[in-house]
Amino acid sequence: MPLQDTVHISLKNFSLDPDNVTGKARTITFVLQNEGRCTHDLRVEWQIPLPPGTYRILCPVSNHADRGTNGALKVVS
Ligand SMILES: [Cu+2]
To answer: I want to staple 23 with a disulfide (CB 3.0 to 4.6 A). Which of 28, 37, 51, 67 is the partner?
Structure first.
């Protein structure tokens, strides 16, 4: 997957598309599109700036993450 500075993610009931993204270890812009029937959001479980590593991304609304609206962000140096 190409290294991205702008990451486009569709939030669906109950999945992220794509659910695995890779970005360079600098500013990453997330562009979110809610394609679900209910309210969604996205949270990266880390304070920015992101050192290289893999981070969980998820919808923090209710139990959506447990129902499948989650994925991974891989940051490479
Ligand atoms: Cu959600």
So the answer is: 28
